[in-house]
Amino acid sequence: MSRTTPALAITLFLCLPITLRSDEWGQWLGPKRDGIWRETGLFDAIPADGLKVRWRAPVSLGYGGPAVKDGKVFVMDRVLKEGAKNPANPFDRDKGIPGTERVLCFDAKTGKQLWAFEYDCPYTVSYAGGPRCTPAVDGDRDYDADRVYAHGTEGHLHCLDAQTGKKIWGRKMTENETPVWGYAAHPLVLWNMVIVATNDPKGILVAMDKMTGKVIWQAIPAKECGYSPPVMFDVAGKRQLIQWYPAGVTSLDPETGKVYWTIPQEPMKYGVTIVTPQLLRDSKLGDLLFVSSQYGGALMLKLDKSGNGDPTASVLWKRVGKSDRTSDAIQTLMATPVLRDGHVYGIDAKGQLRGLTAATGDRLWETFETTTYDAGMQSWATAFMTPLGETGPRTLFATEHGDLIVGDLTPAGFKLISKSHLLDPTNTDARRPVLWSQPAYANRSIYWRNDKELVSWSFAKE
Q1: pLDDT in tens, 169-218
Q2: What is the mean pLDDT of residues 326-348?
Q3: Which residues face 311 on adjacent strands?
Q4: I want to staple 139 with a disulfide (CB 3.0 to 4.6 A). Which of 116, 146, 206, 267 is the partner?
Q5: DSSP of 125-167
Q6: Measuring CA to CA, which residue among 239, 203, 206 is closest to residue 223?
Q7: For 318-344, what is the mean pLDDT?
Q8: What pLDDT score does 19 carry?
Q9: Please, which residues have CB within 8 angstroms of residue 60's CB and are 6 or more apart in sequence?
Q10: Could you tell me the pTM of the whole model?
């Protein structure tokens, strides 16, 4: 089989039309890794009689959301060995809780299970509630599903035949200690490569040949990789691969792994860098990159280029409160913020949905309407945000209670449009029932999972 070289792949990629088929969600946060649902013909609000359930399918334990491509749904889960139990205290780490991790494939129209791939995987992590990562689906043609890449909690990476579930190749990324809360940085398929983060001090970001698993490059020597996934942006005249990790933010040439720039930071408490870096293109402010952490605060970078054309970055502002209870700007934990129209919208680690000005980080408003409702501050309360379209205020919130909220985000505040309970929260690692899983949005449908089932609802007007 012939293989496309990285340089040729880049050229071909640049020649593709910019309009994407919008009924696919084949990786974390969708086609552009920005969490925007671009399909048309969707509801503006939840109907009075609720959303129609298309199908339900049984699954087991897991945080990781599904991926949807080429008529198939892919998701990971964990099955405990008979008689095994997770620690009574979810914060405890065990020497090895016996069980298997699985990659499951379902028919996107009917929910019928098509295949399952499983492997032995004793857990040593805190919060042992299953895999964290969304699979990445790849095809020889843009909208085919030929291969699926699954990154497990303990660092196992598998490339599987998307049609049959047969293993093409697999490896354990490192024998070094697994991060406290497991590997959670969703894999990125880019041209001829699959890119993952791992706890390897020689380089926490590894690019491999997607067909063989052979390492192409390894970059960013650091103590730990954190939990944030790599993401690529076309900015400042270059394609830049961005990795946020406990010691900083780094931009690389995705073809070679060459570092363009690094903005260092004080090592993040507990290594908690989780959200996916997001880009704001603003006519007045220029190109901005935003990251936020519960303990490290919010950081806005201005992206530019030097006189010789190399990408550069500088700190526009950084805001951090005295503690995570007296936070500044947005100190978010899990939910990737939404950036648009000169503003930042995100959920603080204690549950406050906040609006900020992108230029300064000044807070405009806050509300608990999408997280704890009337309960006020609650540790790690969250909702996963998905804008409906590239413009406009309409946004979906998949809450940890299993509710779907439709609302508007504007500089003036949050406006609740509609709300409906869809799925029961089954995970108790937070010492309360929670649903910490990002849905997938494709085929004018919602795909969401808990620890018992994967469910699809229609969100189509017709």
Answers
A1: 999 999 999 999 999 999 999 999 999 999 999 999 999 999 999 999 99
A2: 96
A3: 305
A4: 146
A5: SSS-SS--PPPEEE-SSTT---EEEEE-TTSEEEEEETTT--E
A6: 203
A7: 94
A8: 40
A9: 77, 78, 79, 102, 130, 451, 452
A10: 0.94
Task: Name residue 194's beta-bridge partners.
Answer: 189, 208
Six-digit token pair at 61?
Answer: 């334990």
| Cα–Cα–Cα angle for 171, 177, 178, rounded to 5 degrees | 70
SS3 375: coil
The 3-state DSSP class for residue 271 equals helix
Residue corresponding to tokens 């190749």: 169
Residues contacting 25, CB < 8 A, separation 6+: 31, 66, 67, 68, 69, 440, 441, 442, 447
| CB burial of residue 399 (10 Å; 0-12, 13-18, 19+) | buried
Class of 1-8+21-172+445-462 in CATH: mainly beta
Question: 293: which residues sit within 8 A by CB, 6+ positions away?
Answer: 268, 272, 273, 274, 275, 331, 332, 333
Cβ–Cβ < 8 Å for 160, 117? yes
Q: 68-105: per-residue pLDDT in tens?
A: 999 999 999 999 999 999 999 999 998 899 999 999 99
Q: How confident is the model at residue 166 (pLDDT cuts 50, 70, 90)?
A: very high
Indicate if the pLDDT at residue 11 is higher than 70.
no
User: 368-390 burial by CB neighbour count: b if 16+ within 10 A, else e?
Assistant: bbbbbeeeeebebbbbbbbbbee
71: left (phi over 0), alpha (psi -120 to 50) or beta: left
User: Cα–Cα distance between 311 and 251 in angstroms, integer?
Assistant: 8
Q: How far is CA 302 from the centre of its chain?
A: 23
Cβ neighbours of residue 182 closer than 8 Å, sequence gap 6 or more: 123, 125, 127, 131, 132, 153, 154
Cα–Cα distance between 288 and 359 in angstroms, integer? 9
User: Could you tell me if 437 and 448 are in contact, meaning their C-beta atoms sit under 8 angstroms apart?
Assistant: yes
Give the separation between CA 429 and CA 47, rounded to whole angstroms. Answer: 33
User: Quick one: pLDDT at residue 6?
Assistant: 52
Coil/strand/helix, residue 287? strand
> By three-state DSSP, how is residue 360 classified?
coil
Angle at 458 between CA 453 and CA 460, to 5 degrees: 160
DSSP count for the chain of H helices, then E strands: 1, 32
Burial-class residue 123 by CB neighbours within 10 Å (0-12, 13-18, 19+): buried
Place of tokens 């020649």: 15
